[in-house]
Amino acid sequence: MTNVTEGGADRQTVYNALELQMLTYDDYINIPVEPNGEPLVPLADSPYMVTTQMRAEMLPVTGTTVYVRQTVADMLGEASVRLAADVPGTKLRVGYGYRALDIQKANFARQQDRLRGTVPSVQLDAAAHRYVAKPEAAGHPAGAAVDVFMLRDGTPVDCGADIWDFTAETYTFSPFIARQARDNRLRLRAAMMAVGFAPFDGEWWHYSYGDKEWARYYDRPAALYEQIEFSTNTTPKV
């Protein structure tokens, strides 16, 4: 890994340019939501997909099961088949889907506290959103977003940086990772977008369908899914 590209640009300059191409809080916070009433459903393993929950924060809420909206579940199945057809032995690993709204609110509040005083108060929400999505705009609490990567013969495929390794090297189009790792990211991206997911290119593993970010990415008039309070021990409430 080097600090300059072949054209001579330094690392920070390149990452600043990549950030300018990513959707931000202001791009989609005001997009309306027209809920379609679609349910959250549990994901199950298949011949081409592994779905066990990977984040401990959700274990008290849904156990080891990953929940997403029905259409998201169907699209994940389609994407997994595409990946397996592209490279035999490949499986889609879904590590995270629905996130409890209370967890999203707490995570966002921590980022606000961390940044308070470092930016003008009117910019605090937007600044915190760069690290943790504001609950009203977040895809995970709507069951719309997923964090995914690929397995090949049971082993994680190299994508240049680990999932949830929140550094600039996780930007999908980082030129400072090995060529094969970047090709792997793009293979995942192509399969997910082919079935209708919107990428967030600040995190190579994050994709969504039906949330505000998806609506802005594909120029739709409204999001399809609202944020929802859900656990396997309660009746869903909106």
Instruction: Indicate the low-confidence ranges by residue numbers.
Output: none
Which architecture name does CATH use?
2-Layer Sandwich
Summed over residues and divided by their number, the pLDDT gives a mean of: 93
CATH fold description:
Muramoyl-pentapeptide Carboxypeptidase, domain 2
Cα shape: globular
Sheet-strand content, in percent, reads 5-15%
Order of helices and strands: HHEEHEHEHHEEHEEH
Structural domains: how many = 1
Structural class: alpha+beta
C-alpha-based Rg, rounded: 18 Å
Oligomer: single chain
Give a quick account of the main beta sheet: strands, pairing sense, barrel closure. 6 strands, mixed
Strands, count: 8
Q: What's the quick description here?
A:
This protein is an alpha+beta fold and 238 residues long. The chain is 33% helix and 13% strand. The longest helix has 17 residues, at 70-86.
